[in-house]
User: Which sequence fits this backbone?
């Protein structure tokens, strides 16, 4: 298997051409994530030299219409999403975080954000 950037781009474009027109948000997100999974760099890919690919750690898909952000870590079997309309994104709002080590996160995690104890940056 070739995991170079051009090879993965061509493979993603090929599979994108195969996707049927989605009828629902679920079909659209499933289609995009299926392509992302197909072109992800697997664990164990050689990356001993500068410029060689590093394994994929996460994949995302965004529904701009419904303001939902979908996310999956490659080390867990769960897809999580955030309903951005449920978050306070105004200036001065508190910084919120999710527990990055909680492998039980799944589905809509919008209500699971907690105020950050210290800023993550």
Assistant:
């Amino acid at each position: 298997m070739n995991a170079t950037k051009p090879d993965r781009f061509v493979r993603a474009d090929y599979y994108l051409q195969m996707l049927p027109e989605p009828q629902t948000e679920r079909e659209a997100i499933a289609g995009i994530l299926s392509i992302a999974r197909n072109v992800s760099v697997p664990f164990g890919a050689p990356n001993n030299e500068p410029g060689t690919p590093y394994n994929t750690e996460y994949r995302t898909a965004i529904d701009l219409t419904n303001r939902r952000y979908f996310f999956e870590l490659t080390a867990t079997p769960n897809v999580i999403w955030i309903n951005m309309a449920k978050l306070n994104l105004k200036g001065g709002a508190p910084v919120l975080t999710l527990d990055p080590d909680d492998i039980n996160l799944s589905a809509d995690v919008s209500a699971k954000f907690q105020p950050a104890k210290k800023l993550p940056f």
About this structure: The chain has two helices and six strands. The mean pLDDT is 88.
